[in-house]
Design brief:
By secondary structure, this protein is of the alpha/beta class. The protein has one domain: 3-Layer(aba) Sandwich (Rossmann fold). It contains four helices and six strands; from the N terminus they run βαβαβαβαββ. The protein has a six-stranded mixed sheet, with helices on both faces. α1 runs parallel beside α2 and α3 packs across α4. The chain is globular and about 45 Å long. The N and C termini lie far apart (about 35 Å).
């Protein structure tokens, strides 16, 4: 059995002239990431692998989750290829995970996350919000074979306010 937790990066700023990749979190985004990560600590397995898009907003979100869930920031693997909005690429990356890991947490971007959740989970969502947390369980024992997962939990910041 495999467990996948997907987290969409927190709300980022459009107020700067930075390129998309370099956009930081807003203060509301930082608050929402703290809110969700503090609430889900009991839903995260004891051992897991953590991957994050290397973009500023995703990596900042992953670091906030690390602080609140108490996993070492140094354990986060920042991956350039997770800076994607395409669910097929996201699927390919997730399916490349080593089978020695049963639990994977991925911090990334929309539309890739929403479309992945709707393709592989059993609960449809119009949009995984910023700081959104989705936990999907797969019966398969190999990442490259995952399909037809069971969505165990969806948590958005608005659910906690």
């Amino acid at each position: 059995m495999k467990q996948l937790i997907l987290v969409r990066h927190a709300k980022s700023s459009w107020e700067t002239s930075l390129r998309d990749y370099d956009r930081p979190l807003t203060s509301n985004g930082i608050q929402d990431a703290h809110l969700v990560s503090s609430h889900v600590s009991n839903l995260v397995p004891k051992t897991f692998l953590v991957w994050s898009s290397a973009s500023k907003r995703a990596s900042e979100t992953a670091i906030i989750f690390a602080q609140n869930i108490s996993f070492p920031v140094e354990s986060i693997q920042f991956k350039e290829d997770l800076y994607t909005f395409d669910e097929r690429k996201l699927e390919q990356i997730i399916k490349s995970c080593s089978d020695e890991y049963d639990h994977l947490i991925v911090f990334g971007h929309n539309e890739a996350i929403t479309n992945f959740v709707n393709k592989f989970g059993n609960i449809f969502t119009d949009n995984v919000s910023t700081s959104g947390f989705v936990n999907i369980i797969f019966e398969q024992d190999r990442w490259k074979e995952i399909s037809n997962g069971i969505t165990k939990k969806i948590i958005f910041p608005r659910d906690l306010k």
